Amino acid sequence: MRIFVDADACPVKDEVFKVADRYDLHTFVVSNSFIRLPASARIEAVVVDAGPDVADDWIAEHAQPGDIVVTNDIPLAERALKAGAAAIAPNGRAFTIDSIGAALAQRSIMEHIRSTGEITGGPRPFDRSDRSRFLQALDEAVQRWRRRRP
User: In what order do the strands lie in the sheet with 68-70?
Assistant: First the structure.
């Protein structure tokens, strides 16, 4: 079991590191530029080339069943789920095979609305309750995968 963090603009990296340390999990922090990370043999920085979806592609190519992907990117979450990994957003929303279709559809609708020039206001600000929900969702995902392991 490993954790992959889509790290560019991820607000919960410190929380991931705490959970990874608690369960002794290797964590890949994937980004387009250098990010300062705590010194730990469990945490590995992966700096990929700049460009759209380069970090997402790296994560999708490496994620496998039993892994956890932390991302706000809905298409990456879908790719992770198809690979057999779990996918969790920084606000604690756990993506599932049953919910990913609706999330992709909503994303597409909002993208279309924005393309017409409509100002949608964006997501609400990230707060402490989001951070708490994320910690709970990540801990539950780790526990769920550990119970499945023989």
Answer: 43-47, 26-31, 2-6, 68-70, 86-88, 94-95
